[in-house]
Amino acid sequence: MSDLRHRLARFDRQLPPAPARVRDREPLGALLRAGARWCGEAPTGYLKIERELGASPARELVVGLDASMPDGDLLVLDTETTGLESGTGTMVFVVGLVRWSTRGQRLLQFFLPEPAGEQAFLTAVLAEFSGAAGFVSYNGRGFDIPRLRSRIRLQKMDDQALDRPHLDLLYPTRRLVRGWLPDARLKTVEEGLLGEFRADDLPGEFAPGVYRDLLSAGCDSGLVDVVRHNAMDVESLPRLVARLSGILDGGWRDLPRSCALQVGRLQLECGQHDRARLALDVARDAELPALRGRARALLAAMSRRDANYRAAASLWEEQLQDQPADLHARVELAKLLEHRLDDLDRALLLIAGARDLATLGGEHGAVLCEQLDHRYRRLVRKRGRKR
Amino acid sequence: MQNVTLWHTSDPVAARSVPFPESVDARLRDALKQRGIEQLYTHQEQAFANARAGHHQVVVTPTASGKTLCYNLPVLARCLEDPEARALYLFPTKALSQDQVNGLHALIEVMEADIKTFTFDGDTPAAARKTIRSSGHIVVTNPDMLHQGILPHHTAWVKLFENLQYVVIDELHHYRGVFGSHVANVLRRLRRICEFYGSNPVYICCSATIANPQEHARRLLGQDAVLVDDNGAPRGRRHLVFYNPPVVNAELGIRRSVVKEAARLARPFLETGSQVIVFGRSRVRVELLLTYLKQAMARLNRPTSKVRGYRGGYLPNERREIERGLRDGSILAVASTNALELGIDIGQLDACIMAGYAGTIASTWQQAGRAGRRSEESLALLIASSAPLDQYVIEHPEFFLDSDPEQAIIDPDNLAIHLSHLKCAAFELPFADGDRFGESSATGEMLDYLVEHRVLTRSGDKWHWMADTYPAEDVSLRSAVVENVVIIDTTRGREVIGETDLLSAQLLVHDDAIYMHQGRQYHVDRLDWERKEAYVTAVRVNYYTDAQIKGEIHALDAMDEEEVPLGRRVHGEIGLITKATMFKKIKLGTHENLGAGRIHLPELEHHTTAFWWVLEEQLEACLREDGLSLGDGLKGLAHVVSRVAPLFLMADPSDIRAVPMVRSPLTGGPTLFIYDTYPGGVGFSRKLYDLHEIILEAAADRLGGCGCLNGCPACTGSTLEAGDLARRSASALLALALARRRGAAAG
Per the domain annotation, does B676 fall within a domain? Predict the structure, then answer.
């Protein structure tokens, strides 16, 4: 039998040949000179970087985005991984944190020099987590936390420290910038919302390759850059919190008018009803008919909840004047008239009109027609009884 | 009764039943009684006892013998006792999974028990996945999904893996050849993960009749399994009939077309409204059958929509609809490939006609089992084609009735397959020093190889994954090549009607091929090899096309080698180039040759294992003295051996291919190569090496029994292809080899 390796190479042509690389004498040298220090020793230890960042922005601003965030220190979180794939094989090798308290901000980064140190590395990370009140991240719910959980379970460690309140800024940001920024990537958002432009930043997608060079060839092709990139990410999130909360607190008036609706929705989700009403009132005059319609619907729902039925009805009336073919508006207005405002005649008229509209709606319309017929018959009965 | 070589009637068999074991929860017993199951068949009770005792097992009983209860009973009983218990069911196809879950739901509903059963496959909505992962008691899936969707994400399935008590693998015989070799490795990965979470599940496997169920289970599971094969279920009277169509051309040894005979013999069933299934060996043959059956229906003034085709390449919805139609009786006849051999629930039919030998004894019994309700009489009819294998079987009905069915052969240690799963396994869990993957003693060396290629990294005493890829994505369990060619109908717009793997694409959808789908003909206007798309338009023509593939052998490594009569036999690795070269147009009905065309496609290159027989050089002169030809003889041998050999392997004839060479540049002498068509081979060549003499005997037997003069498609191939001297020369070679062996034995 021929040499196993020879045969393997023959059957495994998908693998690229390993490039020849010069092994650095001290591959971690640059990182250590940049301030990282060893905790434990190679191969089972890890590196840690710490730096004070100053006090602003204030931690209390978080409440402006998520009133349910508990008191106490928050951890702003971002990780670097060996790939973007999900699954247990994707390793977390940098965990960047900003401990954000009422006293100020402190940057903490953990770097895993090689997999044998993973247990100590994760233990240290979890120790930080367990003292914190909650997380702030950018896509941490969908990416960083699941990757960490997978690796923690692989080490047979307890992952409960991951289950704490989490403000993921991706969701509100994505909503806010939809339609007027090209995408919601952090870099784009920093430029578009914060007006900040990064200099000397290594794009995040290069991080896995740099780490692979360290592990496979023992050479440093930019570890300091990877760690700096990670620091930039976590450091900018408190500023994003401040900006977003400023936007909700009236700052939205400086943004494109099409934002008003999304601002109103976000404010509603944060429980800021009075503010939401202001933003949605502006959205009532938006250029796109769909935006106007949704703003009125949200406002009407708020009025209804406050038992202000007349106000709700007049919002629906406004919508029908603007867009007479809006079936949903017709039905909602009819419901108010029937149950709250005692105007069966007009309710009947609205439903009859809705029925005519629905017959134009094809297959979907047929189901709708049936529901409308039902409503129509009930109204007729009710009116008969009343007379 | 002319041309009937076998009429075998098996008498009805009464049921052997036993009461439910005491340990089965009363709720479960009551639920089964409500569904008409008052007692257990003896094999079901035995399976239950094995499962309770923690023995891995393989249950081998025929179609419709109540196989599902063999695993559902112990699993449900356990789930009722312990709400934390979990089970994993594996079926080879999504369709079977869906069937199974419907059955389980019905039973669980009657019990009013909280046993959550879910299918988890490519169709499962993302929103439902989280619930299934955390709270599914019984997760029903397929090996592909286990491979790509579950194992690489095992940390999300902690609850399942920590509490996994039973793993059910139905249709075990299906996991053979390439697919089986992959699945064995997926199960190795499953075992590693179970060990990591501290569980040690009991495996309950079910299989159709094969020669080596226990050995096959052991190879697949990597663990011993006990055998349950004493069937206690009742059977109605069954007729098995072998029919050899009459010879229409004695010179060429050509018999009346099997497709036409099948359609002719199906007609009485259509007339009387009996449900019949007609199996054809190839997609093309099934489409032809469908055309003829529809014509027959039209002549009977019956709706042609009651006759349907069924094969891989049809879209899932279409298939589900056909299965339903067969169950509720709205479909009268179906023409199918072996796709319906599997345990898909289509109910039991009145008759089964096999247009050509299914290729294996095991498959033949599976297909025949589609006919036969428990109490009524049924018929299974095998019609032989002119192919050597068919002719061998039809002439030797005793061989069919008496011999063991074939062995299921897999090679989990096929290097290419093993390596790809080693990568997946390393992605899932790091390997530690001394860990072994499967039975390989070279795990460490292979892991080091992956380190050199920057896929893994070595740290401390472990190997860790470090690439930025997801290895399971690159590995398809079903085929050598991940890539498929999509078939697009451009007659009206752009509709995808099916897909096919690259090797088959060379044969089926080359430029100007006639591609058949649901009895309709499509002309292949263009095969875009770069984009892997074939554009077709519907046509009506009076011919079909038949493509030919040429192979070239260019490198080799011998692994086993031994002197045998007339030369030596070798088992080793070869490099191989395949290329579709030309196609023939063959007239429908008469099957006459209407012309030919060239195929311009790039070569496909791969490495595989082969068996080869190197003959002594002086044989050439020897044969010439007798007025024979070594060249013709080798061609004839290649034809007959490659077609008889599958009798002894549970292989499809297309799994192996034979290449004769009068002077092989590699061996320096006259050589007959037979290779595994799958890259790296999955064990067929090794088996051929071991069975060398037995296969030569069977080949000699076939040549001796053939009624033709100088060779025909049923023995050494048509004289046009193999030469006028093929049959006599091949017979002479075989006689010499077998005589020398006898001589050696006597001496």
Answer: yes
Query: Of B154, B419, B559, which is closest to A88 when you measure between CB atoms?
Result: B154
Give tens-digit pLDDT for B183-196: 999 999 999 999 99
User: E strands along A122-250, which residues?
Assistant: 134-137, 166-168
Q: Span A22-248: which CATH code? A: 3.30.420.10
Nearest Cα neighbor of B104 from B95, B113, B93, B117 is B117
B524-581 residue pLDDT tens: 999 998 888 999 999 988 888 888 877 778 767 788 889 888 889 999 888 877 788 9
Those residues with Cβ within 8 angstroms of residue B328's Cβ, 6 or more apart along the chain or in another chain: none
Residue A363 neighbours by CB distance under 10 Å? 6
With vertex at residue B655, the alpha carbon angle to CA B653 and CA B657, rounded to the nearest 5 degrees, is: 75
Q: Give A22 to chain B, closest Cα distance, Å.
A: 14
Structural domain that includes position B328: 238-402
Q: Beta strand B4-10 with B247-249: parallel, antiparallel or unpaired?
A: unpaired
- In order, the DSSP letters of A179-213 are TTSS---HHHHIIIII----SSPPPGGGHHHHHHI
Of B123, B120, B145, residue with least CA distance to B472:
B145
> What distance in Å separates the CA atoms of residue B675 and residue B611, rounded to the nearest whole number?
6
Chosen for mutation from B155, B158, B411 (greatest number of chain A CBs closer than 10 Å) is: B155
The Cα diameter of chain A in Å comes to 100
Same structural domain, B37 and B168: yes
Q: Where in chain A is the domain with CATH 1.25.40.10?
A: 255-386
A21 touches chain B (CB under 8 A): no
Whether residue B397 is predicted with pLDDT greater than 90 in this model: the reply is no
Residues of B in contact with A208 (CB under 8 A): 468
Span A125-147, pLDDT tens digits: 999 999 899 999 999 999 999 99
Instruction: Please give the backbone phi and psi of residue B717, each rounded to the nearest 5 degrees, phi first.
Output: 95, 165
Rg (CA), chain B: 27
| CATH architecture of the region A255-386 | Alpha Horseshoe (1.25)
